[in-house]
Amino acid sequence: MSDDRSLRTPSQRAAWTATIVISTLVFIFLIAPILAIMPLSFSSGSYLTYPLPGLSLRWYDDFINSPRWMNSLKNSMIIGVASTLLSMVLGTLAALGLAQWKSRFKPLVLAFVLSPVVVPGVITAVGLYFFFAPIGLTGSYLGLILAHTALATPFVVITVGATLQSFDTNLARAAASLGASPLYAFRRVILPLILPGLASGALFAFATSFDEVVIVLFMAGPEQRTLPREMFAGIRENISPTITAAAVMLTTVSIILLATMEGLRRRNERLKGSTA
Amino acid sequence: MTATPAIGADAQTEVPLKRRLRRAERARQVKALALVLPLLLFLLFTFAGPIAGMLWRSVDDREVRQILPQTAAALADWDGKDLPDEKAFAALASDILAARASGTMAIAAKRLNYALNGFRTILTSTARNLKAVPERGTAKETLGKINPAWRERATWTTIKDASGPLTSFYLLAALDLTRNMDGAIVAAPPDQAIYRNVFTRTFVISLSVTALCLILGFPVAYLLATLPPGRSNLLMIFVLLPFWTSLLVRTCAWIVLLQSKGVVNDSLHWLGIIDEPLRLIYNRFGVCVAMTHVLLPFMILPLYSSMKAISPAYMRAAASLGAPPVTAFLRIYLPQTLPGIGAGSLLVFILALGYYITPALVGGAADQMISYFIALYTTETANWGLASALGAVLLLATLLLALLYGKLVQGQQVTGGMKN
């Protein structure tokens, strides 16, 4: 429909124009809030209004010199990295197993593995709150890492599973027939080929943990507050420009994650194109 | 060393070979399962177990039985028609003295107060004024004198109903139902009947957000699916960047935009459209706008993939057969996007049902969804039975919809496979 030759009638052209106009408005709706918050973090005033009274980096200074914000950033990193590693190990093993497993129970097992994504955050959080409190896992890093791993692993299973689906099992067989042990074949043949899938799984897992707030609200003690948790408290009390500085930094992390993801996708498509 | 005996050997080992193959296959399956097992065990501990525990709490009712054990035992064979006998009064008196001594009275009082407003006062006043276990035959009189509530049947049925070990009390309460003195299920008194309202509100907000996402997402998905890959990949960033941006950043951004001195109000004022700032946030409008923003990518992406699979040849065929564009769109294009519409709408609806953070931050008191009440009863008022029961209802609704979603997506994959 996009090439002008197929848009023959005026009504078709009008429909196409309407699509473009509406889509542009929706794109503005999607992007404008994220863009609008950015300049405010560079404001020299303490009110979140335009026009800016002047430019300054005082709110970034505020963020970096605040033990509260720095502690939350540190916590987000610790919990994010740890739960990414754990969910990568559990998720990749499970994806490898599910790819080979043939059973009529497989859809059921798959549904169970993916269910943490669907179940509302509050339900998981309340369950964990009751379950972890008596065994001393609330108000601990370990408790949060375990909970975030449960939320993140489904994404690893999905992304790694998708990569395995396009993986040619003959390659593994070829390696075996050439005398490679299963572990060696995995390390030298399978792993390099599914690495992009693993990387996007890791990105998804990290983003899930880095953005999670409901479970942290229920389970974190004052010591384990993460960046989103600190933002939640800040938004509730009163929005200071320091929050906008934090928001800009979080968005920067998102852009890096998104760019890496896009790079992986492009690389993957190029590889697919070269083998096809 | 010739070929002939080798062939003969092959023929002889044909059956064992089959068996060996089967054995190897079985070993492979066991190994595959062993790879999945660590995750299954992990999720049992960090996900399924905790949720099962929550569900159990919605029917578990042992506090009163533990704190007033003799009373619970004495009421076990009470038929509930008249006042219980002297034995039950004496048991209650001695239970109250024991509970007061051990300091556990407040727990029982809290549980009984859920079922009958004012029960806490009845228990504490009785505990305060009861000096010693009454003499044989006078417990009924003594308790009745301390608090006339003990002369009423309702007080006693409340204790009997709360004597566990299992109860339907919380689950019924979550649906604005209760049991009357005769054990029949009736509507809860109006001052306690708020949850049907909350569930309706949750559904209405989720439905509005889903409808908004569909209306806004459809043209965008169509544009992205129709443009040549280079341009659509570029535009896809507009969908993916919000998708990857933290929920809190986006919620915060909407507060900045929509508050009374925010960007939107300022611009409208500057344009001369309004004199007074509009109230755009901490109300239903704010909740719907922010939630639509958060969930729109979840609508666009499934729609996009279903539209991407539609061959443009169909539309061209329709046009060449003389169908006007509107007819071709309605009869040819739209039906083929239905699986995508279904999947996207269900996904958005499911995610919206459980929303907590956005309404909590940009909604007013009348916009809080069911998750808010579950959180409230868990952390603030510690009414864990009710929190769990509300959670059970929400979980049931979510799982039913997820089941439907699973069926839909699976069907899509099948038809997608057939098309290829």
TrEMBL record, chain A:
Protein name: Polyamine ABC transporter permease
InterPro entries: MetI-like, MetI-like_sf
Regions crossing the membrane: 20-42, 77-96, 108-132, 144-164, 193-219, 239-260
Alphabetical keyword list: Cell inner membrane, Cell membrane, Membrane, Transmembrane, Transmembrane helix, Transport
Main location group: membrane
Stretches assigned to the ABC transmembrane type-1 domain: 73-261
Family per record: Belongs to the binding-protein-dependent transport system permease family.
Membrane listed as a keyword: yes
Topological relation to the membrane, as annotated: Multi-pass membrane protein
GO biological process, one term: transmembrane transport
Keyword Transferase recorded: no
Gene Ontology CC, one term: plasma membrane
Subcellular location: Cell inner membrane; Cell membrane
Automatic annotation (TrEMBL), chain B:
CDD domains recorded: TM_PBP2
Cell location: Cell membrane
GO cellular component terms, A-Z: plasma membrane
Principal location: membrane
Residue intervals passing through the bilayer: 32-56, 203-225, 237-260, 281-301, 313-334, 346-366, 386-405
UniProt entry tagged with the keyword Transcription: no
GO biological process: transmembrane transport
Keywords of this entry: Cell membrane, Membrane, Transmembrane, Transmembrane helix, Transport
InterPro entries: MetI-like, MetI-like_sf
Topology in membrane: Multi-pass membrane protein
Domain ABC transmembrane type-1: 199-405
Record's keyword annotation contains Nuclease: no
UniProt record similarity statement: Belongs to the binding-protein-dependent transport system permease family. CysTW subfamily.
Protein name per its UniProtKB record: ABC transporter permease
Organism this protein belongs to: Bradyrhizobium zhanjiangense
